[in-house]
Write a structure and sequence with these properties.
The chain is mainly α. It has one domain. The chain is 59% helix and 10% strand. It contains four helices and three strands; from the N terminus they run αβαββαα.
């Protein structure tokens, strides 16, 4: 399962470091001005904030997930 989707299904805070590089800038801009916990020195986002961001970008995220699945399928030996 895709990492973004896995984090969406969980209820724990989300580490900024866990957001894939392709999406980190979008997520960081979304979180500007938001409060979130810092756990063991790592900035986190509350899960409800992550889910809101995910839902706002859902169409593009799901498109990217599908493209990645197609590419992986084509690369795998038959």
């Amino acid at each position: 399962m895709n990492k973004l989707m896995e984090m969406y299904l969980h209820t724990e805070p989300v580490s900024f470091d866990d957001i894939p590089d392709d999406w980190r800038k979008s997520f960081t801009e979304f979180m500007f001005g938001q409060a979130g916990p810092i756990i063991d020195g790592v900035p986190m986002a509350h899960n409800h904030d992550y889910k809101r961001w995910f839902n706002e970008n859902k169409e593009a995220i799901l498109r990217d997930i599908k493209i990645d699945e197609i590419i992986k399928h084509k690369k795998s030996p038959n």
